[in-house]
Amino acid sequence: MLWPFELHRFYHRRNDIHARFGGQQQGGISTPADTPGIFIFTGHGAGHVGHQDAFEADGSFRYTGQGQLGDMRMISGNRAIRDHVQNGKDLLLFQQTKKGGPVRFEGLYVCGGWEIEQQPDMNGQPRQAIVFTLVPQSQLSIEAEDLATKAPTDLPLAELRKRAFQAALAPTAASPRVALANVRARSKAVRDYVLARARGSCENCRSAAPFLTATGQPCLEAHHIHKLSDGGPDHPASVAALCPNCHREAHFGVGQVLLNDQLLQHAQSLEKY
Predict the structure, then answer these.
(1) Could you tell me the keywords of this UniProt record (predicted)?
(2) Rounded distance between C-alpha atoms, residue 225 and residue 237, angstroms
(3) Of 44-48, 119-123, 151-155, 205-209, where does the model show the most confidence?
(4) What's the N-to-C CA distance of the chain in angstroms?
(5) CB contact at 8 A, 221 and 244
(6) What whole-number distance in Å separates Cα of residue 132 and Cα of residue 172?
(7) Which is it for strands 103-120 and 90-96: parallel, antiparallel or unpaired?
(8) What is the DSSP code (8-state) at residue 38?
(9) Is pTM, for the whole model, over 0.90?
(10) How does the average pLDDT of the chain come out, rounded?
């Protein structure tokens, strides 16, 4: 899915989001059944139910989960956020700045973990709240570029595959700092496996990598199929190893939709997903 939303642009929630993609039109977490995304809404009005959402200095976002009365449970929308990677769903964050106003698109995020905090419910009673640490995918794409300068692991392909699939499992409870580190580590695990899986050849054009990197490895790039950015600990069944030319075509080519569909089918066939 190539999402039509531009970063920091305002949209009408009902007309621009739900009319096109479905999902619940009320509440902070919308989970349309037939769309590869989960819409998260924050901002005006969150405080009246005790929610304490906040952007952190490191770029991550602290998002209080679903539930207005009593202790929160890892069900429904909360579970959807936790499991979004293994379920092939993007997290799209929108912020409302005034009551009844439009929502501003804040970008694509990845769930790195969560904590249990005591917060008041809508009646002012103390309760155990689930607070997720969401990491922007744009931050992870920078991390991926840094990883490209480092020598990859020399572990056997089977071990790399095992680690990649473990990485795609739902995150666990973690402090914000640990959650950020976990997301980056999982992103590296998926990337290392997919590049090794390609065995030196582009998974689209099947040609050998155009050159070797300074570390002596084939120059191939991990492409997160149907995502706007190439960040995030995606599932190995929806990531392809591409040569630089095919990678650009997958993002900007006139036939990018068809190309990405073909890449997804190929990756899923390799992983029997």
Answers:
(1) Endonuclease, Hydrolase, Nuclease
(2) 9
(3) 205-209
(4) 18
(5) yes
(6) 10
(7) antiparallel
(8) E
(9) no
(10) 84
